[in-house]
């Protein structure tokens, strides 16, 4: 693995955590490390032909890139163990059922287009609110009480920003907002 100052671990095992949303689109074989990279994303789109797998145990290994943490959290214990412990593969529709996939598209081009559409919709939102939403949600995964306790401070910090006022002004004037990230 690469590491060093400023390096962001693509498997999300070490800090710093991403401060911008990660939207991913996949198709075809998304097994083992590819699935672990997939699970790092905030929003996941898969084409119907995607086949997922965590079959390391069938080869005398284990999913050491984070699937033992993220897969049960995202899909539920029984769903994740069903595939991690047996090494069986599953498709995009099963991923959607388990909650690891948010959208299924008919083919790879449609999956990429859907992921870009979602990313553009996020990019049109206030960047400070998006950053705070990610930080608060990630904190809640580790310590929900600490995340709840910090909500007031986070909201008050946004109240004083130019973007907060721009959002209110744009809404009142019935126009699209123009955010500056300040």
Would you tell me the overall average pLDDT? 94
Number of strands: 6
H-E string: EEHEEHHEHEHHHH
Q: Please state roughly what percent of the residues sit in beta strands, choosing from under 5%, 5-15%, 15-25%, 25-35%, 35-45% or over 45%.
A: 5-15%
Spatial order of strands in the largest sheet: 1-3-6
What does this entry look like structurally?
By secondary structure, the protein is mainly alpha-helical. Helix content is 52%, strand content 12%. The chain contains eight helices and six strands. The strands form two sheets. The protein has a three-stranded parallel β-sheet with strand order 1-3-6, with helices on both faces. Helix 2 crosses helix 3 and helix 6 (127-142) packs antiparallel against helix 7. The chain starts with 22 loop residues before the first strand and ends in a 9-residue tail after the last helix.
Concise overview:
The chain has 182 residues and is mainly α. It is built from eight helices and six strands.
Explain the layout of strands and helices.
Layout: E1 23-26, E2 29-31, H1 33-40, E3 43-47, E4 51-53, H2 67-75, H3 77-86, E5 89-91, H4 92-98, E6 103-105, H5 108-123, H6 127-142, H7 144-159, H8 162-173
Parallel strand pairs: 1-3, 2-4, 3-6
Antiparallel strand pairs: 4-5
